[in-house]
Each structure stands twice: as C-alpha cells, then as structure tokens.
Amino acid sequence: MKTELRHERVQALLDEMIVDISTNSPHVSKEELDFSLLCLMRACQGILDEEQNWDYIESKFNAAYNLLTGRAVYPF
Q1: For the chain, what are the domain ranges?
Q2: pTM given for the model
Q3: Which residues are CB-neighbours of 72 under 8 A, at least 6 positions away?
Q4: What is the pLDDT of residues 37-76, one digit of tens each?
C-alpha cells in the first residue's frame, strides 16, 4: 500500500514538474541542469529495476524536482 502511494506521489510531482518546466524556463546553471537530469535518469532506472528501492528513487527525484522547479519537496 505504501509503495502505491509513493508511486502516485512521484507521478503527480512528475506531471507538475513537466508543466512547470514547459511553461517556465528553469533558472539553473548548466551543472545543476546536468545534475538534475542525471538524478531523473537514476530515479527512472530505479523504477525499472526488479527490486525497487523507493527511498533511493524518491531522493533522486526530489533532488531533480527541487532544482528544476525551485520548489522544495521532501521525502514522503
């Protein structure tokens, strides 16, 4: 049950992040943009793994979300 809630929360934040980035240009340096994209890639890789470590997925996703949107989210 907790995993389903985590999955739904990541999906909602992902949708919100896509809308935010498509309407506002992220005000980050190239290094921060590269880091956030790497975090997103690692989060996606974690979702595709057989043994999903949601703590790892959330920490990587939250780091990217915080950098790209400028709004802080914390572990669920």
Answers
A1: 2-69
A2: 0.77
A3: 66
A4: 999 999 888 888 888 888 888 888 889 989 888 888 876 4
